[in-house]
Model the fold of this input.
Amino acid sequence: MAEKDLIYKVDGHVATVTINRAAARNAITTEAVALFHQALDEAQVDPQVRVVCVTGAGDKAFCSGADLGGGMQADAGRRSHFDSYARLISRLTEFPKPTVARVNGHCLAGGTGFMLACDIVIAKASALFGTPEVNVGLFPMMIGALIFRNVPRKKAMEMILLGQRLTAAQALEMGLVTRVAADADFDAEVAAVLTELAAKSPIGLRLGKQAFAAVEQMRLAEAVRYLAGQLLEVADTRDAREGITAFLEKRAPHFKGE
Done:
């Protein structure tokens, strides 16, 4: 039986979503996008899951973008694939639990959307980045919305219009990724970040992420008032009371997500 194009696995408090097409540089298929939606469904309602890690199979590519030969030829197939992908990166951007992109290899085209939709991006030093769509007569449309929310406009346009590949160091300087780890230290770096996130208050992180998503389009005064109310809600949780008590007692807090 053929393996699925995407694998979902929960280990402890971490759910890992792996694009499982290493031989095809983890090019994203219609099946993989559908399975990705299902994975987020499961992760969102599973109280055991506190953080989601997104990565690619193997050690060569995180995701090289859309599979240009799979479902991309017919008009109906393209429209369905694009719509589903657009909904996926929007959903991942606003996901209520912390998300980490484990960029284990080259991240190109549509893979950039998955990466930028995550809260934290940890890249292997040898990884390359870019939006090469212009080289085949296309344009990075949907992911542009995320690129311009993370990268200065001039640098973004240079990357998009030239379609050239960038090093991990250049990606870090631009703001595409949050940290770069040497290849030999990469897995340990990712594991440390996931462990630290899983130790935080699940309800505190969820309420905080949802609040920040809600105020993104608000005016400043409205946003500050709204966030003041949300802080009261967070402060009223059992986890917040436990965190403050633990701080005063000089011990590690024991968060339960309540």
About this structure: The chain has two domains: 6-198, 202-248.
